[in-house]
Design goal:
The C terminus is likely disordered. The protein is about 70% helix and about 0% strand. Helix 4 packs across helix 5, helix 7 crosses helix 9 and helix 10 packs antiparallel against helix 12. With about 325 residues, the chain is mainly α.
């Protein structure tokens, strides 16, 4: 097996093995539980590490760290220039490309790292189209907070612009960032960047508070009915399980859903959702889930939301594959 055939996860596991238990434990402090579990399993599956592979992993890790530091100091262009002088054009491009893809260095990355309240003050007076472009590149949770802070009329306008956004020219992004007096954090090629669209605003709306969501949807329904209907068709939250028929729910429950995660998801849901789920489980399994819920004690909201989101993702996957069809807005019954 050549070095290039190793996956990113395998290289990360080799790196941790090389660093030793004490330093690896420090790294684990900054990872999520699922990432720790995944890496632990990967480490367990590695019997031996050849010396040359270990050296290459360390070298690549060092180069990426250096490149990331250059990007932080002066942006992508600066990092590329420095690395070209040190490593040559081909190697520099390879490292920068790994950062932009694997580490997701994106336009407006400087905003992604800032406190949301500062970002709000920074962009709230910008043109709605500029705000829409910026929010399209931020994490949905960040965009949701910023969108919620805007005035009601601007909320709907920005949401509409995100939904209708298709592809944005690199030149436009450069102009916007120049106007904000920051350097572009990405754009290794002159390709157009896919950004915004209905999927982007749906993801943001699923993260905002209900008041903001309701205001935006009501405004869109008044002025842009077709767009609002398209957005509503793609929006689905855990409580929307109540809109599904029994056959569809059973199809979902037959998927590979961990009983413990189902118990956590139901722990934070309404009694109506719990009841409809239990009705579609065998009596024995329903009793087991109820017992798990009773004895697990208090559960963190973040854990509940994560468990619910996993189930929602399964529902969306089944809908995308045509295994279930979810009727919205009082339409026909769900077809399996």
């Amino acid at each position: 097996m050549t070095f290039d055939e190793y996956t990113g996860k395998e290289k990360a596991a080799i790196l941790l093995i090389t660093l030793g238990p004490e330093k690896s434990a420090e790294v684990f402090k900054y990872l999520k539980e699922d990432e720790i579990e995944s890496l632990t399993l990967e480490i367990a599956n590695i019997a031996t590490v050849l010396p040359d592979i270990k050296d290459k992993v360390l070298e690549e890790f060092y180069q990426i760290c250096v490149a990331q530091q250059y990007i932080t100091e002066g942006g992508i262009t600066y990092a590329k220039q420095i690395l070209e002088k040190a490593l040559g054009e081909s190697k520099a491009y390879e490292i920068i490309n790994k950062l932009t893809v694997s580490l997701q260095v994106r336009p407006f990355d400087f905003i992604r790292k800032d406190d949301v309240s500062q970002v709000i003050n920074f962009i709230q007076n910008e043109h709605p189209q500029t705000i829409a472009l910026i929010l399209s590149y931020l994490k949905p949770q960040q965009s949701a907070q910023i969108l919620s802070s805007l005035s009601p009329d601007k909320q709907a306008d920005v949401a509409r612009r995100i939904a209708l956004m298709d592809r944005t020219s690199p030149d436009v992004i450069k102009e916007v960032e120049a106007a904000l007096e920051k350097k572009l954090s990405s754009l290794m090629t002159a390709d157009f960047a896919d950004v915004g669209g209905v999927d982007a605003i749906v993801e943001i709306l699923n993260s905002v508070d209900r008041t903001t969501e309701k205001n935006i949807m009501e405004n869109l329904e008044t002025e842009y009915l077709e767009l609002s209907e398209e957005i509503k068709k793609k929006m689905f939250v855990f409580e929307d399980i109540l809109s599904m028929d029994n056959r569809s729910i059973q199809t979902v429950l037959r998927q590979d859903i961990d009983n413990k995660e189902l118990a956590i998801a139901l722990k934070g849901s309404s009694e109506e959702v719990q009841e409809v789920i239990f009705q579609n489980l065998s009596k024995r399994l329903a009793a087991m889930i109820k017992e798990d819920m009773e004895f697990m004690g208090p559960v963190r909201r973040s854990d509940v939301e994560e468990a619910q989101q996993k189930i929602v993702n399964i529902i969306r996957r089944l809908q995308d594959s045509g295994e279930i069809i979810i009727a919205r807005g009082g339409g026909d019954e769900i077809i399996v």
